[in-house]
Design a protein that fits this description.
The complex is a heterodimer of chains A (380) and B (312). Chain A is mostly helical and 380 residues long. In chain A, 69% of the residues lie in helices and 6% in strands. Chain A folds into two domains: 243 residues, no CATH class; 103 residues, 3-Layer(aba) Sandwich (abc type-2 transporter like fold), CATH 3.40.1710.10. Chain A has a four-stranded mixed sheet, with helices on both faces. Chain A starts with a helix and ends in a 6-residue tail after the last helix. Chain B is built from eleven helices and 14 strands. The longest helix of chain B has 16 residues. The two termini of chain B are 33 Å apart. The chains are: A mainly alpha (380), B alpha/beta (312).
Chain lengths: 380, 312
């Protein structure tokens, strides 16, 4: 008969009523929307420009004790690429070390007396001192300087000495992100991080608000079902989340040249599943706490920390200690970050990314089922 | 016709605390039923069980023909509920609130707009339709809440302390609206702790500590629980005589207020003149003595005093 369709349309009507009401709440408190949309862009720009893991324009205190054409040529070679900038020239090793200690220089390049003669003999040595206090910079600086000096000395040798057998050539090539630009890593990680925060916190807040104000009791007295309440309440925030994803990707592409090389379907699906999971997490928190203050705190801790530390956003999962590595397997941000990196940088599609998407889907279903079950439409 | 609400041995425990203790009563179709009691007497717990929001611990009730324990969803569809805090969305406009609650009960399209228009007209909300609900005074918010509870034309409406914190003029307007609803056949179940309001009810149940201790019409309650005549006595040095007055034959009840006292007497055994003489004999000159009919206040005080003494 017509009952199922009529019931279906009634359900749809009630879901839309919930969603419409939520949109009105958002419009009344437009700051929420500004926050939700402006924060990701602001943070992306800040992180993208300000927090850079790239080694570029490293200040190098150069101590050229040899002062020959050859030594000067080497310094020119090292600084030519722009990765290193010479800030001191010709001072004593002690003064250069002082620069390093005070943090004015990131490294010291020392060319000893008799460098040019040693080059002719084939026993030349240069010394590179780097600041190990900043481990990331030190490692990268060391690798780069080594490569540069190697190339430079080979060229210098070629110019000043008889050609010898070509030395073993070591080349490090960074795939997918050939310039090793941080923005490439950051945009996917940041997208997951921001979506997680905004989705979890906003949902936790809005649902807890209804408990606090007593309007939840009023809702329970109406025929609106709990799934209708849940879906209706989450829909508008899902919309905001999708907007955020698009915004972050656009800014990423526009400002940081982050490409989209892979499947848009995988990207969309991943974003949607991740968002639903995050909204579900927020819902679960508010259902359990029923209090805006507590909900905000739990939401912040449970979204910020894992999506920042255990998602591969900042620290590679492979480098995590075993217990954290195990925990990270239930953090949806981890799967979303690798989905995003897969699609954006590696050009992957569904064929490669389906395990990630499956994990996201599992989390979303799990958390929504749990939240809906805990969300009893009774007061006892 | 079967009653709109049938309550049988309804009981609700929270741990060791019995909030509602073996309560039974019926409410007829179109009746205004008042549910009176002090805070914590079990009024809201009863209403929540009748609305399908709380499961009874034992006993049960049928509301609008459905069992509240096993068919709460069917009960919900047939009733309107206005909870204690008017649970409107204060950041939304009056119209948005009405639209939301109308569609929550399944009204759509033309039905929705005609019902809202009709309700706005009936509740006198035309001037504030677009105002933000939170900016309205309590009396108007309360009318918006009533409107959203009856928009879907329920056969029964439950109002939990609807007039708390509302000024007397607005309260009177509100009760006119309630009588209006009842006149059209809606059953009204209302809790309050304003005794003067309770006079509007066809019948009143009085709750003390989870038990229904009395159930009758206002007149019947007064006849049974506050018989006699009530004399308001004022005068200097009145207080010294009051304790002695309490045990005197023919004096049913003595309660103090401000500079005077209310004395309820059995006119057969202690006429007003006799009371004046009695007081003068003890050196108290009653400057003023005014006679009035017993009110529900007297009923309520008598019942709670009896419950506190522990007799039945």
């Amino acid at each position: 008969m017509t009952t199922p369709t009529r019931r279906g349309s009634a359900t749809l009507g009630r879901i839309l009523a919930m969603a419409g009401k939520e949109v009105l709440h958002i419009r009344r408190d437009i700051r929420t929307l500004y926050l939700a949309l402006a924060m990701p862009v602001l943070m992306l720009v800040l992180f993208g420009f300000g927090i850079s893991f790239d080694v570029d324009h490293l200040e190098l205190a150069v101590v050229d004790q040899d002062r020959t054409d050859l030594s000067r040529a080497l310094v020119r070679q090292v600084t030519a690429s722009g990765e290193f900038v010479a800030i001191e020239d010709g001072t004593s090793p002690e003064a250069a070390l002082q620069q390093l200690r005070r943090g004015h220089a990131a490294g010291v390049l020392l060319l000893p007396h008799g460098f040019a003669e040693d080059v002719q003999r084939g026993t030349a040595q240069v010394q590179l001192l780097v600041d190990g206090a900043d481990g990331n910079t030190a490692t990268q600086a060391l690798a780069k300087a080594q490569a540069l000096v190697e190339v430079a000395s080979r060229q210098l040798l070629g110019a000043g000495a008889p050609v010898q057998a070509p030395p073993l050539e070591v080349r490090v090539r960074t795939l997918f992100n050939p310039d090793a630009r941080s923005a490439m890593f950051l945009v996917p990680g940041l997208a997951a991080y921001l979506l997680a925060i905004v989705a979890v916190i906003i949902t936790a807040l809005t649902v807890a608000r209804e408990w606090e104000r007593g309007s939840m009791e009023q809702l329970f007295a109406t025929p609106v079902g709990r799934l209708e309440i849940v879906v209706g309440k989450l829909l508008p925030y899902l919309g905001i989340g999708v907007l955020q994803v698009l915004l972050v990707l656009t800014v990423g592409a526009w400002v940081f040249d982050v490409p989209v090389r892979g499947s848009l379907v995988a990207l969309g699906l991943g974003a949607l599943l991740f968002l639903v999971g995050m909204l579900g997490q927020g819902l679960l928190i508010s259902v359990v706490t029923r209090n805006q203050m507590v909900a905000t705190q739990v939401a912040t801790i449970s979204s910020v920390l894992p999506s920042m530390l255990l998602s591969g956003f900042i620290f590679p999962i492979e480098n995590l200690p075993l217990p954290l590595k195990v925990i990270s397997t239930v953090i949806p941000a981890r799967y979303f970050v690798s989905t995003l990196r897969g699609v954006l940088l590696r050009g992957n599609g569904l064929d490669v990314l389906w395990p990630q998407l499956l994990a996201l889907a599992l989390f979303a279903v799990f958390v929504l089922v749990l939240a809906t079950r805990r969300f009893q439409r009774r007061l006892d | 016709m079967s009653p709109a609400i049938e309550v049988r041995h309804l009981t609700r425990r929270f741990g060791d605390f019995v909030a509602v203790d073996d309560v039974s009563f019926d409410v007829g179709v179109g009746e205004i039923f008042g549910y009176l009691g002090a805070n914590g007497a079990g009024k809201s717990t009863t209403i929540r069980m009748l609305c399908g929001l709380l499961t009874p611990s034992s006993g049960g009730a049928r509301v609008a023909g459905f069992d509240v324990g096993s068919e709460p969803e069917r009960v919900k569809a047939g009733i309107g509920y206005m909870s204690q805090k008017f649970s409107l969305y204060l950041d939304l406009s009056v119209r948005a609130n009405l639209e939301f609650f109308a569609s929550a009960y399944g009204a759509q399209g033309r039905t929705l707009s005609t019902r809202i228009a009709e309700m706005v007209e009936r509740m006198g909300l035309g001037a504030v339709e677009d105002a933000v609900t939170g900016s309205l005074p309590g009396g108007l918010q309360q009318r918006v809440a009533l409107a959203s509870a009856v928009l879907h034309r329920p056969r029964i409406v439950f109002l939990d302390e609807p007039t708390a914190g509302v000024d007397p003029v607005q309260r009177r307007t509100f009760w006119a609206l309630i009588r209006d609803l009842a006149a059209q056949g809606t059953t009204v179940f209302v809790t309050t702790h304003y005794m003067d309001e309770a006079e509007n009810c066809a019948r009143i149940g009085i709750m003390v500590d989870g038990k229904l201790v009395a159930l009758d019409t206002p007149t019947g309650l007064k006849r049974t629980h506050a018989p006699g005549r009530v004399l308001e006595v004022r005068g200097p040095r009145l207080s010294v005589a009051l304790d002695a007055l309490k045990g005197t034959p023919g004096v049913l009840d003595v309660s103090r207020f401000g500079a005077g006292a209310t004395v309820r007497v059995d006119p057969e055994r202690m006429a007003p003149e006799a009371l004046a003489a009695w007081l003068r004999a003890r050196g108290v000159d009653p400057l003023e003595m005014e006679e009035s009919a017993p009110t529900l206040d007297d009923v309520f005080l008598a019942l709670t005093a009896r419950a506190q003494r522990g007799d039945d």
